[in-house]
UniProtKB/TrEMBL annotation:
Keywords: Leucine-rich repeat, Repeat, Signal. It comes from Malus baccata (Siberian crab apple). InterPro entries: LRR_dom_sf, LRR_N_plant-typ, LRR_R13L4/SHOC2-like. This is Uncharacterized protein. The keyword Repeat applies.
């Protein structure tokens, strides 16, 4: 074959590939395969379509690139897959109120245009990825009511656009990093209560703080003990 024919063949292959290949659609199909969907919410997520823009709860921009995934309260169970990190123009990832388990993929930190990351009320475990500190457009990070462990990454202090940071009701340990508590001074609403955090960096001013409760209980027991000794002596 002459090089001209070969080049023609090459162009034809490229043309076919660019018609058939949509990496965002394929990433969402990989995610669908990681989900159990008893209400059949994702029925329209069909890989034979050229783009995912007409699928249920998917919104695209004028370039047919995905900017919103709105799947809150849809009875979905399953995992968040690393392939979600391919959705380079994603601004809203709304998957609250499902039964997602497993950990938050590091690749979510690639979503540089993300404005809102709502993972609250699921069953997510593992650590909050350090990579989430790269989400410089993020305004809302709501992770409450999960089972996240480990400490709060100091990198979250880089999220200077953050308006709401809700990490409450998880199993987080350690102390609140000063980088993160400094966000409060620049106007971020922070709730870290109902975790297993040390110290009093808990700014929600809650009296139901477990540490306080334990101290009060201990004091009460010591007082009772002293009182009983007193009574038995006299
Ligand atoms: C996807 O759409 C094609 C063509 O409309 C249809 O034949 C196929 O059954 C659909 N697949 C799923 C999983 O719904
Ligand atoms: C979720 O499941 C419950 C019970 O199975 C059902 O009543 C409800 O309609 C479902 N919600 C959605 C959004 O499909
Ligand atoms: C969360 O997962 C645990 C097991 O890992 C399970 O026992 C529990 O029922 C789940 N919670 C919800 C709300 O689905
Ligand atoms: C983010 O924060 C961490 C720790 O506070 C710091 O080491 C890192 O250089 C910061 N990264 C960026 C991209 O600003
Ligand atoms: C902060 O988190 C706690 C525990 O989840 C919750 O009870 C409380 O209502 C939250 N505070 C606000 C102001 O939302
Ligand atoms: C914080 O706690 C103090 C002492 O219990 C209380 O007087 C104050 O009203 C609380 N502030 C808020 C905003 O709840």
């Amino acid at each position: 074959m002459s090089s001209r024919v070969l080049f023609g063949l090459f162009l034809a292959v490229v043309a076919i590939a660019s018609v058939d290949c949509n990496s965002e659609r394929d990433a969402l199909i990989v995610w669908k395969h990681g989900l159990v969907d008893p209400s059949n919410a994702l029925q329209s997520w069909n890989s034979t379509l050229p783009s995912p823009c007409t699928w249920y709860r998917i919104t695209c921009n004028s370039e047919n690139s995905v900017i919103r995934v709105d799947l809150g309260d849809n009875n979905l169970s399953g995992i968040l897959v690393p392939e979600l990190g391919i959705l380079a123009n994603l601004e809203y990832l709304e998957v609250y109120g499902n039964n997602l388990f497993g950990s938050i993929p590091d690749e979510i930190g690639n979503l540089k245009k993300l404005v809102s990351l709502d993972l609250y009320q699921n069953n997510l475990t593992g650590k909050i990825p350090t990579s989430l500190g790269q989400l410089s457009s993020l305004r809302f990070m709501r992770f409450y009511n999960n089972r996240l462990t480990g400490s709060i990454p100091p990198s979250l202090g880089n999220l200077t656009s953050l308006q709401i940071l809700e990490l409450n009701s998880n199993l987080l340990t350690g102390t609140v990093p000063v980088e993160v508590s400094n966000l409060v001074q620049s106007g971020t609403y922070l709730n870290v209560s109902d975790n297993m955090l040390q110290g009093t960096a808990d700014r929600s001013n809650s009296t139901s703080n477990r540490a306080n409760y334990c101290c009060e209980l201990l004091l009460f027991r010591i007082n009772l003990f002293v009182a009983l000794i007193y009574i038995s002596l006299f």
